[in-house]
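Quality-control log, excerpt.
Job 1 of 2 completed; input and output follow.
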Amino acid sequence: MQFHRFCLLTFSAAFGLTFPLPAQDSLRVSGSTTLNPVVSEAVEVLRNEKGLRITIDTAGGSTGGINALGDGRADVAMSSRSIQERDRDKFPSVKYHSVPIGQDAVSLVVSADVWNGGVKNLSGSQIRDLYEGRLKNWKEVGGPDRRVVFLNREPGRGEWEVFTKFLYPDRNKPPMTSHPMVGSNEETRNKTGGTRGAITFLSTPWADGKKVFALGLELPDGNVVEANGANIASGQYPMSRPLFVITDGEPAGAAATLIDYLLAEPGQQLVSKHGYLRLDEVQ
């Protein structure tokens, strides 16, 4: 192989020609914007320390990553939802191997004007009425006299899966809505923070208390539970979820190197750094 490469370089130099040389294979990682900050920092370390070539794509969120893994466009999927039967049905030859690396929660978040107007928590029935359009003004739930703008997440996003399962635990599909759609966590936070009367659901660490504010959930017994670390770890907060990296079969090569790093102490420190619970913090 080295001899052929030498001949190619000699020939091209002699005749002033250039030929592209084969690129080193890259590990392709795709999926969740929730996991992206953690994995991106781990990737930078592995690039610098081990010289690994790793690319990351977050188009389509968790489902986009799972689909990319299924059809061979990714080697590792980042997902804030678990593998479901529809994934197995779509890609029956894939042997999904899911490795949890941390725990997250999904918060209902509102824009500053709604928060400052007095809305600090909502019950499940109030959230359903807002989502389905029966509550149209914030004054109906003790807030300002302002139209409700519900920003829906793209179906297939991990947050959407957790939110709809919480609201509709006994239904395969949630009702159809015509809300404006938003995608990534960053886009969702910016759009919600910049829209008067807005509400949506968002990975909890992205609820910064500046642009958007996380609401407490009023449980059926009347108690209000916040999306804080203790409540997420104990399971009291209902909209929580593990965070996964997923491969087709047992991870090997560069994929195993990445996953081992995320499970080791330096990787778990990155999980904490970005606001998620480490594996050893989850009960």
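Job 2 of 2 completed; input and output follow.
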Amino acid sequence: MTDAYVRTIASMGTVVTIHVVGHGANRVDETGRKRGVDAALAWFDEVERSCSRFDPRSEVSQLSTRIGARVPVSDLLFEAVRFALAVAEESGGAFDPTVGLLLETRGFNREYRSGAVVRTALEPDDDATYRDVHLDADERTIMLARPLVLDLGAVAKGLAIDMAARELRGRSFADFAIDAGGDLYLAGRNADGKPWSVGVRHPRDHQTLFETLRVSNVAVCTSGDYERRTPGDDGGAEHHIMDPRTRVSASTAASVTVLASSAMVADALGTAAFVLGPERGLELLERDGVDGVIITPALERFATRGMRAEYLVEGRSSGFDS
């Protein structure tokens, strides 16, 4: 016999759904499922309290009020920033978590719950980069050497997904799906006892899918130029994936989907590959041992060599199967 438990909340600027499936001996009583899923979902609010630049009370926002000081931070924020800096270094600055002020000035500055506009009391420093963020692993401190705002949007949601997945596994859940605004972690099997089905959204036709994947025990994260847009200064439209080196929206990719063992890895590397574009983006993904697909604005498809044929299936679906 198979049963399922589904819970949905709003957190981190998106809708988060956890879908737990019980197969035979792996079935869990309803009280146990509720407790486990509640504990997993709590990680999203916990990560948001540490990593959201839209909340002036968050740890990451408070860093921007203490430029030049070595600020003790939680392990959660320290590890998120340490990982973001590692990806920045690996990508040659194509990924850079110090773009918070740039995003603010381009209109990506509204708190998702209240709609309130977030304005940081700092003058933008166009020379600030990830190299101006200094970590002390022994003291667990972070120091911002220049006026800047850290944006951990391409790290924090993946981190929350990973923590939620770890929580569920620690409570002996083997078959589940976590969906945070289309960033996914799929464990075990769906209700039919098969790998989970994931649709890769067509970047120009939102009613159809570009392709469908069958996956198990893997994170799948997509970065697209259609997700968040705002009018640009020149009257055109900008999306939120900025090239930190040119300070304009990256334009050589329409979407990037990355498969990795960790959602934080998939999310951050997907953003970096989007900025780098098809050729250099694939090089980055191959070098870091993850699978991925890059779709260009002209709808050309580029995939890593490791994008195995067994991932691809016929037919269309939306999100993940139950």
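Post-run check on job 2. The radius of gyration is 19 Å.
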